[in-house]
Design goal:
Keywords: Tricarboxylic acid cycle. By secondary structure, the chain is an alpha/beta fold. It is 43% helix and 20% strand. It folds into two domains: 176 residues, 3-Layer(aba) Sandwich (Isopropylmalate Dehydrogenase), CATH 3.40.718; 132 residues, Isopropylmalate Dehydrogenase (3-Layer(aba) Sandwich), CATH 3.40.718.10. It is globular.
Length: 338
């Protein structure tokens, strides 16, 4: 598995993930690379992912804010270069933090276009002080996202796929998305397919938390919807990982994009999102048992509530969090790996 720890807290979180996955008996080997350093390392990382098929990454933007704004963001660019056409985030209520939860037992999967719309990365300056950001939507890629969503529904016993669009503002591109969705939905009569404008869809959700099951939308709306859903379930992106999926390759990463430059090395960061990135990688590779152990151990840790990190109102250090998690892994199946 290619691993890109990234900058800030990334290296310490990657080490935590290695420890937890090894303890759970994950039969993985790692190739650790740093694409944020320079173009040569970035290009070598692309070749590594092509060899290994699966990668786990932290935030791979450069440390310098000047560098960050002078080039295309590598966090997004790598997804386009590897043709990872869909981003999948499971927004699900987390046990043990009920005091922060607005809607309990929420379970919605958001799938957004990963290489099109504003994520097409087509910005330029035709004349001085006039900038253009070109949004590209194609029938081909929209259809791929829809097909992935309906197949995901079948594989995960989900019953409904909803397309959220903005037809009244962008009628041409949004109608293209609707047409692609309809073509795919007609092939899956056992899965309910619905289409709603973003405004109407949000009203439905606020009235009924079960209004959505799997949601497809564009890149920008997807980002906003995920933030709203995280707020509804009372946690933030630090507890969640996401899957960037293509036809040949997959990259898993924490949903939280912060680099954590100000807290790096202070032993206070919540490692759950990075650990869950490893869990998704295990599941993507078919190693279900160690992934199940880690999910169960995390649930037990959060329900117990004794070693929560400061972002969740606790006082535990990262190291204390990990020690407790490792102990729970040992107890689950008398694992001898840790």
């Amino acid at each position: 598995v290619t691993v890109m720890p990234g900058v800030g807290t990334g290296p310490e979180l990657a080490e935590v993930m290695f420890e937890v996955l090894e303890c759970a008996g994950a039969p993985l080997r790692y190739e650790v690379l740093h694409p944020e350093r320079n173009e040569e390392e970035y290009n070598y990382t692309l070749q590594s992912i092509k060899r290994n098929g699966v990668a786990i990454k932290g935030n791979i933007e450069p440390k310098s804010s000047t560098e960050l704004f002078l080039a295309q963001p590598k966090n997004m660019r790598i997804k386009k270069d590897m043709d990872l056409f869909v981003d999948v985030i499971e927004c699900k209520s987390f046990p043990g933090i009920e005091n922060r939860v607005v809607h309990k037992q929420l379970d919605i999967v958001v799938m957004r276009q990963n290489t099109e719309g504003e994520y097409a990365l087509l910005e330029h300056e035709p004349v001085r002080n006039v900038l253009e950001n070109v949004q590209i939507i194609t029938y081909y890629n929209t259809k791929r996202v829809c097909e992935y969503a309906f197949n995901y529904a079948i594989a995960n016993n989900r019953c409904k796929v909803t397309l959220l669009h903005n037809q009244h503002v962008n009628p041409m591109t949004e109608n293209l998305m609707r047409e692609a969705f309809d073509e795919v939905a007609n092939k899956y009569p056992d899965i309910l397919g619905e289409k709603h404008t973003v405004n109407h869809g949000l009203k439905m959700l606020l009235k009924n938390k079960n209004a959505w099951d799997i949601v497809i939308t564009n890149s920008v709306f997807g980002s906003m919807l995920v933030s709203i859903l995280f707020g509804m379930i009372g946690n933030d992106a630090r507890l969640v990982a996401e899957a960037n999926v293509g036809e040949r390759y997959m990259i898993f990463e924490p949903a939280y994009r912060g680099r954590g430059l100000d807290i790096a090395g202070k032993d206070i960061v919540n490692p759950t999102g990075f650990i869950m990135s490893g869990v998704l990688a295990l599941e993507g590779l078919g190693h279900k048992k160690p992934a199940e152990y880690i999910r169960q151990a995390l649930n037990e840790l959060y329900i117990e509530g004794k070693t929560l990190t400061i972002d969740l109102g606790g006082k535990a250090t990262t190291r204390e969090f990990v020690r407790n998690l490792v102990q729970k892994l040992r107890n689950l199946a008398k694992l001898v790996h840790c």
